[in-house]
Amino acid sequence: MNEKEKIAYRYKLLKGSLNQKTTRLFAWAEALSLWYWWVKIIEEVTWISHGTIIKGKQELESEDSIITSDRIRREWWWRNKLIDKDPKIAIQIEKELDGNTIWNPMSLITWTTKSLTNLAEALKQFWLIVWRDVICRYLKSKWYSLQWNKKVLEWWDHIDRNAQFLYIKNKSEKFIEKWYPVISIDTKKKELVWNFKNSWQNWHKKWEWIEVNVYDFPNDAKWKAVPYWVYDIINNIWWVSVWVSADTWEFSVNSIRNRRYNMWKEKFNKTKKIYINCDGGWSNWSRCRLRKIELQKLSNEIWKELHISHFPPWTSKWNKIEHRMFCHISQNWKWIPLDDFMTIVNLISNTKTSKWLHIKCVLDNKIYQKWIKISDKEIENINIKKDKFHWERNYIISPKKI
């Protein structure tokens, strides 16, 4: 076995255990054992480049050798950045951002309305070829960042907005301490039931796709599904009723009734009160006569006091249902066309999270009559007690013997 074969054999044995740094040091150490054309032979045997072998020589011969260091490569902190080499790039980027930059005087963060690709294309007009990554690093160094829209502006701010929320919070805590039911109710937007395209994407084989209608006009839908949500705050349990027609006040109260008989009857059979939180939207309108009539019927049926509190105007987004359930439902039925009612019911029922989110969904096939008129005598028969603090949004409906 000649010298080349010995070096090749040693390198083959150690190759699996060598990293970039130890490979350089091994190559130069083997080269030192030869006295003729040592670097060239090492290159032929190990296929290590000439520059790599010389770099190993410099590392072994330098006074501050990195043999004892854990670093594989040297730090390149001294490398000049492209923008430092050519100041024209930074100047031109600032000019492009001058008319497309938004800045908040109360914050150091700024953001631009131009994308990185558009900025790179704009710089090409001035013979400046700059990659998107270079522009991104420069923008971050100047306190730029990607920004989203934030829903913080409200159309109308009520004078007692915060006071009403504090009233609901304090009353909810008192009910929870006594183990009385505290529920939050809301109606989700109507879903078009037909073979329409559902946004979002999902992982599937390339040839596995669902064919949907080209057009998704609302008039083409055969039905409209109305999901009504009831959230039990104490037990973190959700109840959803899906109706096959329009949203009515009778349907909203019937959803609470179904919830009670299906999931509350054993747990809260001995309780005397139920606290209901809701917004002031169409299905939970505080001035609706029919809704109060239906709540009175529910109170007589279960023989419990119904304490109702409505959120201030233009604050429906602060309902707990908006943040704790709607997002998970939308994630669960993404990509799947909502072509029938049972698909909607099954997708809602199978929604789960790591925080033990449990949802029960049923289909309500009952036909509810629209445009029911309530007389003044019927309103007078309601056993209602209005609270001193904003009586129009805080009231109690007690059971009444007929």
Describe the structure.
The mean pLDDT is 78. The protein folds into 3 domains: 3-61; 82-141, no CATH class; 161-200 and 212-397, Nucleotidyltransferase, domain 5 (2-Layer Sandwich), CATH 3.30.420. The longest helix is centred in the middle third of the chain and has 17 residues, at 161-177. It has 15 helices and 11 strands. It is elongated, with a radius of gyration of 35 Å. The strands form 2 sheets. Strands 3, 4, 5, 6, 7, 8, 9, 10 and 11 form a 9-stranded mixed sheet that branches. By secondary structure, the chain is of the alpha/beta class.
In short:
The chain has 402 residues and is of the alpha/beta class. It is built from 15 helices and eleven strands. The longest helix has 17 residues, at 161-177.
Q: How many helices does DSSP assign?
A: 15
Helix content: 25-40%
CATH topology of the largest domain: Nucleotidyltransferase, domain 5
Mean pLDDT: 78
Rg: 35 Å
- Which CATH C-level class of the largest domain is it? Alpha Beta
What is the second-level CATH architecture of the largest domain? 2-Layer Sandwich
